[in-house]
Write a structure and sequence with these properties.
It holds the Pfam family DUF6098. It is a single chain. By secondary structure, the protein is α+β, with helices and mostly antiparallel strands. It contains five helices and eight strands, in the order βαβαββββααββα. Strands 1, 2, 5, 6, 7 and 8 form a six-stranded mixed β-sheet that branches.
């Protein structure tokens, strides 16, 4: 990881992400305009029009049932909402901690008392995409047989 003056640490390769998550519990991933933009806001359920009691994010800690490598879990989690970061040039992936206040409409954790940890470089997100395509069967579901 590297850091700039007053900026988030930047994770520049996928192995550094794996090391961080392997060494520290309670990390989450969010795609947005960043911690400063999110500091005085909360997520919204656009279908219902309701404000949510926290920022929606994705869990980076693997579940106890996950028996595959941590790299696989992280590739899947990073790619889960990567289209949000790709849709707008100034949105990006960043890692945070916080207190889970509830679950959103997609069962995602909603965080309050957020503390930014790091920002993912685009190369990390690209590597996650490549690993996901190599190691998973994207689009396969219970109807695929």
């Amino acid at each position: 990881m590297t850091t700039g003056s007053g900026e988030l640490h930047r994770i520049t390769d996928f192995a550094a992400l794996v090391d961080l998550v392997g060494a520290r519990d309670g990390l989450y991933l969010r795609y947005s305009h960043g911690p400063e933009a999110d500091a005085n806001t909360q997520s919204r359920d656009y279908e219902s029009g309701l404000d949510l009691p926290g920022l929606s994010c994705t869990v980076l800690d693997p579940e106890p049932w996950w028996t595959r490598p941590l790299e696989d879990w992280l590739a899947r989690q990073v790619r889960k909402y990567a289209d949000l970061g790709e849709a707008e040039e100034d949105r990006y992936a960043w890692i945070l901690t916080g207190r889970v206040t509830a679950r959103g409409p997609d069962h995602e954790p909603l965080l309050a008392d957020v503390e930014p940890v790091a920002r993912l470089d685009d190369a990390v997100v690209s590597r996650a995409r490549d690993l996901y395509r190599e190691r998973f069967d994207p689009g396969r579901d219970s109807t695929s047989g």
